[in-house]
Amino acid sequence: MNAEQIREMVRNRYGAIADGAASLCCATKSSCCGSGPAPDIDTLARRMGYDEADLAAVGAGANLGLGCGNPQAIAALRPGEVVVDLGSGAGFDCFLAARQVGEGGRVIGIDMTAAMLRKARDNAARLGVAHVEFRLGEIEHLPVADATADVVISNCVINLSPDKPAVLRDAFRVLKAGGRLAVSDVVMLRPLPDELQAITDLVSGCVVGAATVDDLTRWLAEAGFTDIRIAAKPESRELIREWAPGLGVEDYIASATIEARKP
């Protein structure tokens, strides 16, 4: 698939999830989906590092169980900061960030899926959060001015991009000097076999698009970032196994924290 075909597949999958027409596992019932019941999204969130206070703060509707970690845990957000979330979905991480930066701060969520934006805006209205906004856009070309953000966060979205170096360059652009990148995503531990790469649902299922730690480190450095730290999480194996039961994808990818700074 070319880059636009990948984007369209991802857009369709997550649009279907937002509308309740697809499972968390994949957008169509195929070999990447198990036959058991759908996972409980709150249980998934706890396994990704969120606590009961996080779940209670956002209520129903914002947590769709689509992440692979908790970027809040590494972002060290402070009151008054501006946060940009790449691939904000229904707004879960945005609303948690808004609690930390307070009304003197601001959170901007970016998503390319119109159905997700509608869901996020409805959730913002329900929660009465005025200092969070959601914008339609691709994470390779953020609809955000230069030097806007103190922190850029993202949760299991950059792997979905067909042009990850462009994502990291644009994240660098929108950060202020001294700004921070705090990302949870998946990394490739070893190459996927051809039979797994051929399963198209694994492209939109946060598997096939995973990059290696070496590649991510190089792209971050080329974008201008310093203080680069990428740490794979072996304990994510059990969680990732459930994304594509029986296929063994947990032998090839792992959740990781990705941190860097703009000088």
Give a brief rundown of this model.
The chain has about 260 residues and is α/β, with parallel strands linked by helices.
Order of helices and strands: HHHHEHEHEEHEHEHEHE
Instruction: Using the alpha-carbon principal axes, give the shape.
Output: globular
Please tell me the CATH architecture by its name.
3-Layer(aba) Sandwich
Broad CATH class = Alpha Beta
Binned, the helix content reads 25-40%
Relevant CATH superfamily: Vaccinia Virus protein VP39
Give the helix tally.
Answer: 10
How large is the share of residues in beta strands?
Answer: 15-25%
DSSP E strands, number: 8
Total separate domains: 1
Weakly predicted, low-confidence segments: 25-35
Mean pLDDT: 91
- End-to-end CA span: 36 Å
**Largest sheet descriptor:** 8 strands, mixed
Characterization of the model:
This protein has one domain (3-261): 3-Layer(aba) Sandwich (Rossmann fold). The chain has helices at residues 3-18, 41-47, 52-58, 72-75, 92-101, 114-127, 164-174, 194-197, 213-223, 237-241; strands spanning 82-86, 106-111, 132-136, 149-155, 175-188, 211-212, 226-233, 253-261. The radius of gyration is 17 Å and the shape is globular. 34% of the residues lie in helices and 21% in strands. The longest helix is centred in the first third of the chain and has 16 residues, at 3-18. By secondary structure, the protein is an alpha/beta fold.
